[in-house]
Amino acid sequence: MDDVAAALERTIGELLAGRRPEASICPSEAARAVDPAGWRELMPEARAAAGRLADAGVVEVTQGGEVVDVGTARGPVRIRRPR
Questions:
Q1: What pLDDT is recorded for position 47?
Q2: Domains in the chain, ordered, with CATH?
Q3: CA pair distance 46, 55, nearest whole angstrom
Q4: What's the predicted TM-score (pTM) here?
Q5: Residue 20's closest CA among 75, 81, 62?
Q6: Helix 39-55 and helix 3-17: axis angle, to 10°?
Q7: DSSP letters of 36-70?
Q8: How far is CA 5 from CA 28, 45, 65, in A?
Q9: Cys-Cys with 1: which of 5, 17, 56, 64 at CB 3.0–4.6 Å?
C-alpha cells in the first residue's frame, strides 16, 4: 500500500471518529483532506480505500442508506461505521 492509500484510510477513520456515531462521510471528504488541490484525481483511490476498510469490517459503504459493494456501486456513496 502506498502513502496516499494509507493516508486515505487513516483519514476516513479520523473523519468518522470526529462525527456522531450514526453519521456518514463522503469519500470526497477524505480526498479533500489528503490533497485539497488534487482531490478529484484521488476519488478512485478514496473509494478503493473505503472498499478495503469495508472488506476489513471497519466501515460500511452505503448508497441510498443500503450497504453496497463500492467496487460495483455506480454514483455517489457514503461511508459509515458498521451497524
A1: 98
A2: 3-80 (1.10.10.10)
A3: 14
A4: 0.95
A5: 81
A6: 70
A7: TTTHHHHHHHHHHHHHHHHHTTS-EEEETTEE--T
A8: 14, 7, 25
A9: 5
